[in-house]
Amino acid sequence: MLIISLIIFAIIALIVAAVLGLLSSVVAWRIVRRRNWSHKRLIVLLAAITPALFIGMEAVLGFIGSVYISETKGVDLGFGDYWEAPLSASHCLSAVDMPETACIREKGPYLEGSGRVEHLWVQDDSVFVTIQDKAISSEINDSSSSTYSLYLFHRQGNGMDTLLNRADTLQLAETLRSRNLDAKTALTPDDYFTQAQREAHKIESPLRHTITIVTILALWALLIRFIKKRSC
């Protein structure tokens, strides 16, 4: 699946780069054709290839950054259809195919995960997680027989605290109220993965953009300088 995802991404990137390159070259030509500038064709060429260079460098640097963050911070969002974000030093939120399938899993060698994660709350260094427990009766589709568990994780610590274990909806509601955990502030697994991605990439993203822009400007300057020397 990872190879298929990369192929689809590459095709989309090529199409977008081609369209943007065509548009930017047309705009550049309309600007330079009425001006007495030298190297008009070079300017149009640079305008045409710049979108492809930008997208290509962003994709390569972004992939390298994602691999680095995955290895160092444990945040893996969707590559190969696997999602992961840390809850603590010992446990993570993981999902396969879709964030909605998220469960709690212990880090290290693969172990079977918990039931399906419903909501999460982040309070400073603490993360509260409610899960709908795996069905233990034949009435799998009977929501009235569902039980819920509530866990507390400390991001900088190990292990987890079990606040509720296979409780009914009334017990869950009472415990959430006692902990000041409001449904309005609850995060879905998808929200938590997105938040983890923003936190993990808050340095990588601006650094990646800066490297890409500086590199493209440097290539422009070198190419223009080379053409000027050849024309002398």
Percentage of residues assigned to helices: 40-55%
Give the overall shape, derived from the CA principal axes. elongated
Q: List the quaternary state of the chains.
A: single chain
Q: Spans of 5+ residues with little confidence (pLDDT < 50)?
A: 136-141
What structural class results from the helix and strand content?
alpha+beta
- Strand percentage, roughly? 15-25%
Biggest sheet features: 4 strands, antiparallel
Q: In angstroms, what separates the terminal alpha carbons? A: 53 Å
Main features:
single chain; 232 residues; alpha+beta; 4-stranded antiparallel sheet; 50% helix
Characterise the protein shown here.
The chain has a 4-stranded antiparallel β-sheet with strand order 1-2-3-4. It has a 4-stranded antiparallel β-sheet with strand order 5-6-7-8, covered by helices on one side. A hairpin with a 4-residue loop joins β2 (82-86) and β3. The chain has 232 residues and is an alpha+beta fold. The chain is 50% helix and 20% strand.
Per-chain topology:
Layout: H1 2-32, H2 40-73, E1 76-77, E2 82-86, E3 91-96, E4 103-106, E5 116-123, E6 126-132, E7 148-154, E8 161-167, H3 169-178, H4 189-200, H5 204-231
Antiparallel strand pairs: 1-2, 2-3, 3-4, 5-6, 6-7, 7-8
How do you describe this structure in short?
This protein has five helices and eight strands.
